[in-house]
């Protein structure tokens, strides 16, 4: 595990210290968890943005419809067996 050193505004550090005491959790673990959650949220936001762009693309829409037609055919064929 790598070591990372950073500065925080006093007010934020005070909030962090208070919450860490309340949760009986080391500050570094609290920061680690908060950062993980934040990075996951950014990734989700990027996916949403990507899907919104794809939604406006006729080429993507055509590919999706073609894929759904193939999927429907596969299901229909399985039902016949």
UniProtKB/TrEMBL annotation:
Organism encoding this protein: Gelidibacter pelagius
Pfam families xrefs: RHH_3 (PF12651)
Lineage per the UniProt record: Bacteria, Pseudomonadati, Bacteroidota, Flavobacteriia, Flavobacteriales
Protein name, UniProt field: Ribbon-helix-helix domain-containing protein
Listed SUPFAM superfamilies: Ribbon-helix-helix
Gene3D superfamilies, A to Z: Met repressor-like (1.10.1220.10)
Superkingdom of origin: Bacteria
Domain Predicted DNA-binding protein ribbon-helix-helix residue range list: 4-41
InterPro entries linked to this entry: Arc_rbn_hlx_hlx (IPR013321), Predicted_DNA_bind_prot_RHH (IPR038733), Ribbon_hlx_hlx (IPR010985)
